[in-house]
Amino acid sequence: MSLPEHLFDAWRSARSARRPAAFLVRHAERGPVESLDTHELVRLTERGHHQARAAGRQIAALSTRVVLHHSPVERCGETARGIAAGAHDAGGGAEVKGSVATLGNPFIKDRARAWALVRQRGPRFIREWFDGELPTDVFEPRAPAARAQLGAVDAALRASADVEAAHVLVTHDWNLAIVREELLGITPERAWPEFLDGVVVSVDGDELVIEAHGRVGRAQRGR
């Protein structure tokens, strides 16, 4: 498994309209998470490393230049470096710019209370969070959390003068679930973000265009 075809369709659509575009994707396959307290230590599996490299070869077929950012969590860094290596394998150029804090979990305001709530509520916690039923000093509400994720993508695109490059930002499933429900109406219950799935974000004047699975949403830049 590498990046799904719907993301490539969305990227091609954005570029055919001359819009700078970026992939916002989940990391490749990781090992099992035994405890929320130590989840950030979990790395990619061997299969995950192969997935990331294959994704890089795919992306290099779209653009000879790939620019990458990633969450501070190491499995996202591993994914970004694997994508870069795959792009180089395919004869493209790739640069890993480094980590972006917003691609981690800035929406978790109190880690101890958050993990306790997750354990207490079980699988229903994310619906309660997204529906605004959990304390906002523990979990940031869905709408501002989604804006922050899109802001990270927008900032990466603004910082680059290379509009022809394929920009890739590697993040986590919760981050993508927030964006997909808020902007596209794709709930986690309907489709959880799988490894290397995500959304394409492109710039259209004062708006960001968000696309995934054939759905399109828009958000104002800088909001």
Strand segment tally: 7
Overall form: globular
How would you state the average pLDDT, rounded?
A: 95
Kindly report how far apart the N and C termini lie.
34 Å
How much beta, percentage-wise? 15-25%
Total of helices? 7
Just give the CATH class: Alpha Beta
Biggest β-sheet, characterized?
7 strands, mixed
Structural class: alpha/beta
Provide the helix percentage. 25-40%
Quick take:
This protein has helices at residues 5-16, 46-60, 74-89, 111-121, 125-130, 142-158, 173-184; strands at 21-26, 65-70, 93-99, 166-171, 198-204, 207-212, 215-220.
Structure description:
- This protein is of the alpha/beta class.
- The chain has one domain: 3-Layer(aba) Sandwich (Rossmann fold), CATH 3.40.50.
- The protein has seven helices and seven strands; from the N terminus they run αβαβαβαααβαβββ.
- It has helices at 5-16, 46-60, 74-89, 111-121, 125-130, 142-158, 173-184; strands at 21-26, 65-70, 93-99, 166-171, 198-204, 207-212, 215-220.
- It has a seven-stranded mixed beta sheet, with helices on both faces.
- A hairpin with a 2-residue loop joins β6 (207-212) and β7.
- α2 (46-60) packs across α3 (74-89).
- The radius of gyration is 17 Å and the shape is globular.
- The protein starts with a helix and ends with a strand.
